[in-house]
Amino acid sequence: MLLRFILRKDRVWLLVWILSLTVFTAGFVPVFEDLLLADGEATVYAQMMENPAMIAMVGPVYGAGNYTTGAAYSNMMLVFCVMIAGAMNVFLVSRHTRQDEETGRLELIRSMPVGRLANLTSVWLTVLLANGLLTILCAAGLFALKGSGMTWEGCLLFGASLGIIGVLFAAVTTLFAQLNSDSRTVNMSSLLLMLAFYVLRGAGDLYSETLARISPLGLVLRTEIYVNNYWWPILVLLGISLGIALLALWIAEKRDLGQGVFSDRLGRSHGSAMLSSPLGLSIRLIRTPSIIWAITIFVLAGMYASVFGELESFIQNNEMLKLIFSSDPRYSVTEQFIGLLNAIMAMIATIPALSTIHRLAGEEKQGRAELILSRAVSKGELLSAYLLPAFILSILLQILTPIGFWSIGRLVASDLPSLETFLISSLIYLPAIWVMLGISALLVAIQPGKTGVAYLYLGFTFIIIYIGTMIQFPDWLKSLSPFGHISNYPIEEIKPLPLVLLTGISALLVLISNHLYRNRSIGDV
To answer: Which of 140, 148, 139 is CA-nearest to residue 34?
Structure first.
């Protein structure tokens, strides 16, 4: 009965996630087949993927001697696809475990003749059904659009890789839901662990095979899909997932409803003066996740910068890559990579800024925004209390990124560009980030329950900017994203007009959002 209830409640949410991920997974196969590997370009692309920076981002290259569409596609896409599948399961489990406890829904269910583990078991049946469907649909989609070297076994293994990482992070989230007493901590802990696994995988793929295999994301890449099709990493990850899930079930049976294993830290008996204003309260709420994101951004920038010293020699030893990456002798190879790296980091830095604004939608959903507005606080003041920190956070992260590039890169590269070059290349992405923030503010003002659309748009942006740079998407497609209007500095001269227009658009979106939010009833969506 509980399983049917969860499926009824999440039927649209789950189908959108699964179908979107299936389309994302299979949809780029024809692009790789027709554009990337046409006319003998497979060898060139394989050599490009052997670049240390690319290995750090997507994993080691396998099958380079006969680089088929399947090998290239798995090499480029697998790590990102499994991370999206992991995120889907984090949100799925959190909303039906810890979030249901916070809102009191689980207490209502448990007041009926229901076992202590009935809800958690129902959630896990949902997880298995969802990931099983994801596995089958992705495998079928890949096989239907298959390119050279893409066998049915490889397609099934690709789908199984998504499913097993989804199950693993469902288990991890289930465990965090028993340890912590609020859903925000559960979500943040699970996603940060995923990010930590990604960083660990990148470092391991560059320096240590053992280190890479410790990370589940590194282990799943050892399946070598469409080349050797190893299934043993799937079995190892399945065993780990089962162990974590059983531990979470054991803890769930022992602990009290509404409590976590880690008790909440007692706060001060009196709040500080800072908490007397909406702005002070919002800053206090985002303080910890902002610090964590700042550390994460710096670590990611440092990880990418650690390969700067190897780029120049690698390109110089390869005539074909020298023609591709050193077409302009005025710029070093590192300078030619700065624009792409800053674009990637800017999109990653957009995530915490968006989540800051989306907190207001969460406060409204939980009824806390209404309590704040019952005092002498205007709706415009409340909206500004989340918008202002989001804009400030975006600036701070865009400053921290080039500092990470430069401070770590100068330790491994002798001819590194100046800090000023890194700063300029990073800061020019601020208007694009601000447009994304304006879109999020508009969603909060008109449809606070649909703020996830902003993340979908950011995902679309990542595809057309990052992958589009590698396989040369048409310019009109890149222009659909604000990030597509930013100059690739220092290779390209900075164009002031797009920056001014993007800033103006973001300001207009904020003004419209403020007007709509002030004239909308709280809870009326």
So the answer is: 148
Q: How far apart are CA 181 and CA 178, in angstroms?
A: 8
Q: Kindly report, residue by residue over 35-68, the tens digit of the pLDDT.
A: 555 555 566 667 667 767 678 778 888 877 777 8
Number of neighbouring beta carbons within 10 Å of residue 215: 21
Please name the amino acid found at residue 225.
I
Residue 176 confidence (pLDDT) above 70: yes
Task: State the Cα–Cα distance between residues 53 and 22, nearest whole angstrom.
Answer: 27
**How many Cβ atoms are within 10 Å of 58's Cβ, its own excluded?**
20
Name which of 111, 114, 108, 139 is nearest 229 in CA terms.
139
Give 433's pLDDT tier (boundaries 50, 70, 90). Answer: very high
Question: SS3 for 328?
Answer: coil
Give 189-193 contacts, CB < 8 A, sequence gap 24+.
190/90, 190/94, 191/87, 191/90, 192/292, 192/296
Burial of 388 (0-12, 13-18, 19+ CB in 10 A): middle
Residue 159 · residue 139 · CB < 8 Å: yes
* Secondary element (H or E) of residue 335: helix 333-365
Tokens of 177: 């839901």
Q: The whole model's pTM is what?
A: 0.73
d(CA 396, CA 261): 35
Dihedral angle computed from the Cα positions of residues 503, 504, 509 and 513, in that order, rounded to the nearest 10 degrees: 100
Radius of gyration of the chain, Cα coordinates, nearest whole angstrom: 24
The two tokens of residue 130 are: 């969802």
E strand or H helix at 192: helix 183-207
120: tokens are 């958690």
The answer, yes or no, to whether residue 524 has pLDDT greater than 70, is no
Cβ-Cβ contacts under 8 Å for 258 (sequence gap 6 or more): 101, 107, 181
Task: Kindly tell me if the per-residue pLDDT of 267 is higher than 50.
Answer: yes
Q: How many angstroms from the chain centroid is the CA of residue 407?
A: 25
Res 191: pLDDT = 86
Q: How much is the average pLDDT of 108-120?
A: 86
The string of DSSP letters for 116-179 reads TTHHHHHHHHHHHHHHHHHHHHHHHHHHHT--TT--HHHHHHHHHHHHHHHHHHHHHHHHHHHH
Residue the block writes with tokens 């990102």: 80
